[in-house]
Amino acid sequence: MTRRTLKIVTLMSTVMLAISVLLFLLGYVISPWDHFLSFGDDCHVGVWGRGLDSRIVFFNDAEEGPYCGSIIGLVDADGNVQPPLEREAAFGDAWGIYYRYFQWSDSTLWTLTVTLWYPIAVFTIILVVSLLWWTRRHRSASAA
Q: What pTM was computed for the model?
């Protein structure tokens, strides 16, 4: 049972590592504003490469694409933002995670980006540990 589980974990980790690296590289070739997968009207996924980082991008507005910092309203003479925001939430850009959420009375705009270095690191560690365990087990079996 343990050998079968180890083989499955190693295979799955290898496949997911390959997919993560492929997405990482695709981030430098394609743009999430032009190429993305849609899961309904309000959920889209793309990849975006910049510098030494490539990220998976989740966003809700296919026409505007992912929000990455721009003007979302104008201030009138009285100092009020037009159109008025009902809710705003933000996190990052820290530790490879960026999140923005804006809600107006008639619409919502949100974006979440997560670096692909996280899955690459996790799947690499799983793969290396599995291979080291397999090598150690194989050596002990052949020495006996």
A: 0.83
Contacts of 63 (CB under 8 A, 6+ apart): none
Tokens of 116: 């692909």
- Cis omega (within 30 of 0) for bond into 41: no
- C-alpha dihedral sign at 108, 119, 69, 67: negative
State pLDDT tens for residues 4-38.
Answer: 888 888 899 999 999 999 999 999 999 999 999 99
Order across the sheet with 97-103: list the strands: 37-38, 44-50, 53-59, 108-115, 97-103, 87-94
Q: How distant, in Å, are the alpha carbons of 22, 95, 112 from that of 31?
A: 14, 22, 15
For 88-104, how does the pLDDT look when each residue is reduced to its tens digit (9 = 90+)?
999 988 899 999 999 99
